[in-house]
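Q: Structure for this?
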Amino acid sequence: MAGIIASIIDGVLVGAVYGLAAMGLTLIWGVMNVINLTHGAMIVLGMFALYFLTTGLGLPPYGAVPVTIGLGFVFGVLVYWIAVHRVIGRTHLMSLLSTFAMNMVLIGLGTALFSTSPYNVPVPLSGVTWKGYTFTGTHIMAAVLALVIAGLLYLLLYRTRIGKAIRAVADNRDAAELNGIPTTQVLSFAFGLGVALAGVSGTLIATLFPFTVLSGGAYELKSFIVTVLGGLGNPAGALMGGVALGLIEGVTTPFMPVSWVPIIEFVLFVFVLILFPRGIFAFARS
Amino acid sequence: MRIKEDAMTMRLVLIAAVALLTSAPAVAADDALTIGFTVSRTGKLNNDSTAQMRGFELWRDELNNREGGIQAGGKRYKVNFVSYDDESANARVQQLYTRIINQDKAQFLFSPYSSGLVATAAIVSEQYGRIMLTTGAAEEKTYKLGNKNLFQVYSSADLYLAGAIQALKELNPGAQIAFVYKDDPFSKAVLQSARKQAEQAGLNTVLDEAYSPETTDFGPIINKVISAKADVLLGGGHYPDGATLARQLYDHKAGLRWVTLLVAPDSPNFATLGEAAIGVSVPSQWEPQVSFKPDFGPTAAEFTQRFQAKYGIEPGYHAAGGYTAGLILQHAIEQAGSLDQAKVAGVLNNMDVTTMFGRTKFSTNPKEHGLQTGHEMVLAQWQKKNGNVVKEVIWPKSAKSSDMLY
């Protein structure tokens, strides 16, 4: 019984990080209808940022978090102007191809520079042990930070002017433009924000596990599932979706061979797509 | 008339001179021997495959520069490589080996890295009847499909954990073992044999689970290990998952007294895990500290020093395996005295030699032709010495450099 509870708690902790990773994806998707296939690469960049900031500049691991947000934002705005600006409003295929190509470029560069060897950032943070099961300090910290960042995002979207502008553009770009909102700048800001979120989630993930240039793929996949669960364009939904996914992983693992867990995940994914095409949490909010 | 005669003479002299200059003395002309293979320059096998390739290249460079090439049948052959990036993908391996044989006309082949890719390459090489030295491939199934020209340098998968199990039997016959391993051909092959060996040794198995290669968080599995009250964990897979599992086992304080993981802990990079690496052991095809006395080629120490001089890092067994594949092929061609496939295969089939890698002998039983029967695995463990995290050989007792930590 203790094992099951431990797995559930573990699942929720990791799920918060999955949720943070998905928030960037869902924001970009919801605001500008672009499926950002560089999402995985951005997560990886966040991981490498942690590595270089801690080993190269000697920053404390959690001190790198705000730096990554800043760098991610700037990088995201750059990528917007290079790869995304011209394909907004066109068919989905164009934005998919454009971001896919960008992704290949980034991963290729990464492999050339860093090869696919694993990198590790040891983060000595003592955890909480209960009945023989340990909840690592890093997991707890990552979940807490994920919640904090999600909270900040909420404040940005609902309590600031730029947030209002983002929501307006997401609702109806033409109407927003007619109202004097510089939509192109708002879109580039939103994209930068989405990338910053992906990057910082990578930084937090890197405090938990070793990583390689190719690690982003698995998280990108999970982000897609979480985005569908939580509803497009709904960051709070993404967080809840992430926790739900983590919960599913945690709950099912003690009861069946671990190799079945991805199957369960994907079956549920298809289930949700059929029953709640706008996402479970979008449904709840309608 | 005079002038015409002079011109004719001049021409004859010229022709004679050219003929003299281009006629080959006994062993002067540098003929070339082409060896083909693919390397995973991109994709998830990149790390180990590059190490293996460096082994090949060091052998080739030393051979061409120090000895001028392979000497066979009165001729000297410089070795040329033709290699491509297989992107760690089976489909590419199939296309590229076909190209290497048909268009690049490679006379001999080395394998790609990893059992999965080698299985595919073997289909192509057997189709065209070319000799292939396989390295970086331990799964035995590839050799049991009725081949004639495969020759395995590594020990096969079923021997990987045999050493660890024997060591455990000595240390703690009552150990509770958890088998946690990656769901891929190599790891599953290793664990299938390990299960039987553990049973025969009378050890208790309390958990036996395969995890998906896409697993990112081992927390739930580790909780299962804790629930099962295991004190030993055997398994893992390749690099990224092995390193993650090791770190998480440490973070979660899983209370294990013995952890043996496949492949991952063999890399020098594993040391970056710091405290999490201590005590983790890995079955290894070869370690720089082994002391085999070679019949030909360098000793392990000499190889290690030369490799380090060229590449700046210590070689692991992937590089050593690559180098040995070259040595074995070279020896076979020299003994056969020709490049003829049948003759070279004949020598390889009868070979029983020792190199810095250990003993090499290929099975000639048609049901498992080419399987490596002479080579033995060693067990290495990460320990703390003088404040540094280093790798020591702990098993077999005859080759060890340090005592086991339990």
